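Q: What would this chain look like folded?
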Amino acid sequence: MEFLRYKKARGGYRLGVNIAGTFHDLGDCYRQYRDLAGRRLPGLPAALAAASLRALLASPGVDAFLDALRGDGAPAGVSALDGAALVLGAPLHDPGRFIGIGLNYRSHAREIGQAVPPEPPLFAKWANAITGPRADVRLPAQSQAVDYEVELGVVIGRRARQVAVKEALDYVFGYTVINDVSARDLQFRTGQWLAGKISDGFAPMGPAVVERADVGPPHDLKLETWVNGELRQQGRTSDMIYDVPALVSHLSHLITLEPGDVIATGTPPGVGMSRTPPSYLAAGDVVRMRITGVGVIENRFIAAD
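A: My prediction, written as structure tokens:
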């Protein structure tokens, strides 16, 4: 199943689910499930009202509801949505933590002349950076070096504390596509990368969170980026220095990961700053990203205020 956050022409965002290629409103599915099964699940109505996938994953009893959808599909009486008419937001807009991983592809480290790091370099992005899979992204006035980075996003599904590498995937709910937009001139002003990572809209995400079982092992997924139709990035997760299980395990020994936390797992080669001369984004540029089995996002960059 794929979980998305959508709205129609009128009204606010709602949570939706794509089951076998058909879109349904998740709130409608829950109400029918509640009535048919005679079960009320605490926390779910509030999560659905807030259109919060994070809150949904943290709700008691959510596993029974999701298992019913996996096994039986949408309950009888739930109408399908016209996917083409939906305006998509970021599928997970309010993570408790948004953790970035730097220099995590061997070929990317080589292209920028960096050694393989002895452990994963970490940085943070904040929720203000998250925007939808088709939203415009405004270039910040204070930067002249805005770059693109396609990344596999990992969404945590249950609390993870000091988990072993061999068990780490059990704590992953699903995957999404993230553009870790980076203002390189701001990023490298100091030894901390934060300033180059946190501008509004600097994390387009989506189009959905695809459940782990539907993607399969994340060890050899293909990642691609096009800028104005030109293929710029092409890589595979098999080139990761620290793969998904290693990252989840490592982070769970530093902090307790919670449902709805997001990890951006690093980018393959081909970023703008590595080109000769460097090629940064300008107003009007369109960046399209695709990860096999996860989806496609496409964002237009627009001029600063």
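Helices lie at 26-37, 44-49, 53-57, 62-72, 106-111, 184-187, 212-215, 244-252.
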